[in-house]
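S.,

Sequence below, as promised.
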Amino acid sequence: MLHEMEVQAKASARARKAAQAAASREAARQSREAVRAEAAQSRQDARDVIAQDKARKLAHIADQEANVEELNLELEVSLKDIDSVLNVGLSAGGYFDLETLRSVVEHPQFNSSHEMPIDPPSPIQAPEEPLLVLPESPKGLSAMFKKSEHSAAVLAAQKDFEQVHMEWQAKVSAIPMQQMEQMLAHANAEEKRQRDLALARMEYDSQCIERQQKVDEANVALNEFIDGFKSGKPECVEEYIEMVFSRSKYPEKLEPSVKTSLDQETSELRIDLTFPLPEDLPQVKSYKYVRSGDSTTSTMHTVKDLKDRYNFLVCAMTLRSLYEIFDAERFGHIHTVSFIGGVTHLHEGLGKEVFTSLVHVALSREAFKEIDLSKVTPSETLRYLGGVISKNLYALEPANLNSGVRAI
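The prediction came back faster than expected:
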């Protein structure tokens, strides 16, 4: 017996040890699995971070390259605008009809919160006449015992009815006066609305008259200007030519400013035009995004390119201005034009703003008509016309006027 118990105890001990060993192995296995899973998740997280970082970098690169492409497109458009200055002027012309400046009055539609009539009030209705309701007479044996109670109840009901009916009659008799007051209040409100509407209409009519007067005055002034322009009044001709230049469309920052003066005796128009400065032209030729340094670099125009483009612009603007003058003035008040074009800039020696003339040309309307500006080289045309051009426009070297300028 003792031997069997000892055997069983040893077997139980072995079983416990085996279970403990199995549990330890399972715990170790689970621990290893957890470590492996954590390591795998860490590797995946690292890959996700790398992928996200790569995606951000690619998005940043795409954004920078798009910005550079936009900058280059803007540069291309700017250069095309400069190179087409003369052709744009020829297409648009200088003439415009002064009648297009005539004003036409535009009155807003009359609108007032007082336009709608006030709806009349709903008539006060008389309340329904009360009815006498008597208590039901007792029946059967109870009629013998409750006769007095019933009589008392009837008397009470009649008394209550008399009071209610008197109150009803009072209300009904008051209704005509209430209806009259109601109608009077509505009439007063409607009368006030009509007065307010009339005042609003008067104010509107007054504003219309004021607007019409301003338009009439503007049109009278326009008529006087048109008559003065047609008759060759110098100040009107000068103002018209300056209006022509104000309507002439140039690329941004390249708009010229002009001053005009007409000699009525000789029919010669003197025009002083201010060109843009060389630095007003785009200095950058192109932009490029460099991925390695995550930076945008620029390539500048060569000095020769800048000089050539500025020389072309000055000569093209000169011819365009002459064309716009002769095309705009069609009454023959301008026979010849004396053109002086230059720039206003800081003189390094004087330390102040000065005007340096770069182009001088004088010519007649007849001589200018002989030129087909759509096929010319602007600088050659100016030389053909006897104009004097600075030998170094880009350096703002003054034009040499020793030989003088004479209209052809």
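The longest helix spans residues 147-230.

Coffee later?
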